[in-house]
Amino acid sequence: MEIMTLNSSLSLKRSVDAGTAEQRKVVQDIIADISENGDEAVRKYTEKFDGIRLENIAVSQEELDEAFAAMDEDMLEILKEAADNISNFHEKQKRNSWMHAEESGTILGQKLTPLDSVGVYVPGGKAAYPSSVFMNVLPAKVAGVKRIVMVCPPNVDGTLPQSVLVAASIAGVTEIYKVGGAQAIAALAYGTETIAKVDKITGPGNIYVALAKREVYGDVDIDMIAGPSEIAILADDTAFADEVAADMLSQAEHDERACSVLVTTSRKLAEETAQELETQLQKLPRQDIARRSIEDFGKIVVASNLEEAITAINEMAPEHLELLIDEPMSAVGKIRHAGAIFIGRYSSEPVGDYFAGPNHVLPTNGTARFSSPLNVDDFQKKSSIIMYSKDDFERNAHKIAAFARMEGLEAHARAIEARNKDK
Ligand SMILES: NC(=O)c1ccc[n+]([C@@H]2O[C@H](COP(=O)([O-])OP(=O)(O)OC[C@H]3O[C@@H](n4cnc5c(N)ncnc54)[C@H](O)[C@@H]3O)[C@@H](O)[C@H]2O)c1
Ligand SMILES: N[C@H](CO)Cc1c[nH]c[nH+]1
Ligand SMILES: [Zn+2]
């Protein structure tokens, strides 16, 4: 891989993938068809895109039990431990309703209510993602959401991946359906005979899923449009090239359009990492995907100093950032934009993908400039509480009425004045 030098004309920013006009049209047509024809349209697209006609898309308790029984005991323990770590982390995010009583007797506050129902998209297609089941469902559970509907595209034999089913059971999903792509998003947003509509849809997926979420937003809420994975690694001469290359490939194997970038102050590390990437790629099972990702979107960049490197990384606002530098904690304050920051050698990105506890659904495509990881707040909504006292009302009524008249809203002013009389 070519090694570049960081200069003012080199930007690490990703261009947002808005899909092609043709893909948008495909998605709009699928959504319209599902809204109109419900389950029958779901069956048609599942047959077309996943290669199986399913008369019944609901996962039965029997299928869940079979998946559990077939799961390796040790693996089951690992899944449970990961689920505990993720739940514990998200418990710390949970906020409570609050009310504050002023001395004047007025009570102001904020009431938090979990969403009634959430739809969680779990990608199928290229890989099975039990970890994404945990990352979407467990924060919803912590928030108190009662109805959690999971959708996932079926395998060609009409099953769902065993690992996904077991994760769904551990996490406490309430309904599971074998449907993927834009047709799953439309079914969750508008409902079919089998799937009752939900209030919010979360979860990552490919371009068809992302475009569908964008289309239905407004009729339901969505979490974010999570694009292909990204990793930026900031490293100096204390880092090890084999570890840097391994971490870059860990995200490259997700998707041909995943993006792995090394920014380093050490030319030696840059050269060794380029070599390591080639050696390690040859031994990877998902070599084709990872190679295309590295060739089309991978970058190794040499910066003249740490400050310059951090400026470029802030501009990129990567989904994941690893700090493999001497005294990495000292750089954290200077990082303004990154979905998740992995500090030091033992915080390899997959630690966060699976086990540490923080969420792996993170802002991509530079949206870490203004978005946050999926979290418990995404599954609760707030209502303001206002209980105004007589004293406050009498003291402020004329100010409120004046404000209303300034806006030309006479009825507002009169609503206030109607109460400002002895009755
Ligand atoms: N950000 C995260 O947290 C995270 C986690 C896991 C996976 N991911 C990403 O999710 C994505 C998963 O993509 P995937 O494709 O493997 O699975 P997917 O489930 O997103 O997509 C499969 C579905 O796409 C639809 N589809 C495929 N080709 C189509 C076409 N030509 N026209 C219309 N619809 C079509 C089909 O309905 C199929 O069921 C990857 O990009 C991966 O990196 C992200
Ligand atoms: N790295 C992905 C998010 O960008 C999440 C994931 C799931 N499984 C493994 N990794
Ligand atoms: Zn990953």
Automatic annotation (TrEMBL):
PROSITE patterns: HISOL_DEHYDROGENASE. Its EC number is 1.1.1.23. Pathway: Amino-acid biosynthesis; L-histidine biosynthesis; L-histidine from 5-phospho-alpha-D-ribose 1-diphosphate: step 9/9. It catalyses: L-histidinol + 2 NAD(+) + H2O = L-histidine + 2 NADH + 3 H(+). GO terms for biological process: L-histidine biosynthetic process. It comes from the Bacteria. Zn(2+) binds at residues 251, 254, 353, 412. Belongs to the histidinol dehydrogenase family. PANTHER family: HISTIDINE BIOSYNTHESIS TRIFUNCTIONAL PROTEIN (PTHR21256:SF2), HISTIDINOL DEHYDROGENASE HDH (PTHR21256). Catalyzes the sequential NAD-dependent oxidations of L-histidinol to L-histidinaldehyde and then to L-histidine. This is Histidinol dehydrogenase. It comes from Peribacillus faecalis.
